[in-house]
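Notes for week 9. Today we move from apo structures to complexes. The key idea is that a small molecule is not decoration. When we ask for a structure prediction with manganese (II) ion present, the ligand SMILES becomes part of the input, just like the chain. The input block below holds both the sequence and the ligand string. Read it once before you look at the output, and try to guess where the molecule might sit.
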Amino acid sequence: MPGPALHPEGGLTAYRGVGFDAVGGGSYRRGMRLLHTSDWHLGRTLHGVNLHGAQTAVLERICELVESPPDGIPVDAVLVAGDVYDRGVPPVESVQLFEWTLSRLSAVTTVVVTSGNHDSAIRLGYGSGLFRDRIRMVTDLGQLDLPVLLEGSDGVRAAIYGIPYLDPDHARVALAGAGEPLPRSHQAVVGAAVGRIRAELADRPGVRSVVLAHAFVAGAEPSDSERSIMVGGVDRVAGTVFAGIDYAALGHLHGPQAPDSADGSVVRYSGSPLRYSFSEQDHEKVVLVVDLDASGPARVTPVAIAQPRAMATLRGRLDELLEAPEHTPAEDAWVRVTVTDRVRPDSLMDRLKSRFPHALQVFHEPEGAVERRGGTTVVSERDPRELGSDFIAYVTKTEASGGEVDVFEAGYEAAVVAQHKAESQEVA
Ligand SMILES: [Mn+2]
């Protein structure tokens, strides 16, 4: 059987040597080039709006970048670090969009995909045993130390490892081998996974190492559109867990960012290619172009992904909102509005929509109203401990004690485990 996904010079020769480093802005160099993206969340809606068209547009843009890189330097692999789908059973149009994207990308490059906390690993992994060479789906932790081996130009070689999203309750046993289960934490299971990868790498001197992972790295900033992965009160891993790895391509957080990491190890979140909450209205959405030479740190260049529709947050009295010229740019945007009239205006949504047809959320906060403790909004992204504490305080009219919150959290985690069990039995 041929080695996995090794493509020496074939297929991409048309691009070689024709360009200049317009993306990186430096002089022409060419070793190994990767395109890192994550958190596509196909099937997601935005306050009830179907985003399929917007998702098609951004994936189209990613395909174009790979097919015709702006500087002519070909992409050796596309890395998708989890949360391909927004939920375990995605809509059929999302499954079709993913297949269309995979076929288009794999016609010109290698694609490595891992599962995130929103994906059903088994459903996303369908076909992983059938795909060869150009497509590697890593959704099973038994495969995390089986690299995709790539050869770029100038003799630069890379081993790419995918770590699927690790549920600590399952992975602490699966990764412990014959020994005692690992501590029940993301830090322990991701650390063990990277440890296996480092051991495999020890036999590959001179090969650059790349790891895909779906995790919350300490110090990074969340937004309102990630679902909590809290376990035992902690959801973070240290960026230094990837020590010894040349490039860690992360998924989970939706804003592009560079958390702290060990020396010589470059760790990045590409973020989602589309804005999935108003908290992301000022994010510039990107994919990351990553260039690796035979030695030295990975060079990372963000490439902007134009958003199909802008987002805006407006506040004011209804008559001002409907007339002020400065709100003209918001007329075509997805809009969240807070109306401050003393009395809630009649037909508020209809009137707003006459100027802002894409208004998605409307709040009424009368000017001068006494500041009161806001009610609790129950959304899936909220920290369950905080939510429990708010709930207990609301019901008992006193602050929740640590013990009460512990009981709430244990109940929450039991429910999550039961749901996962139900989902995995359903496919059996
Ligand atoms: Mn995500």
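The two ends are 30 Å apart (CA to CA).
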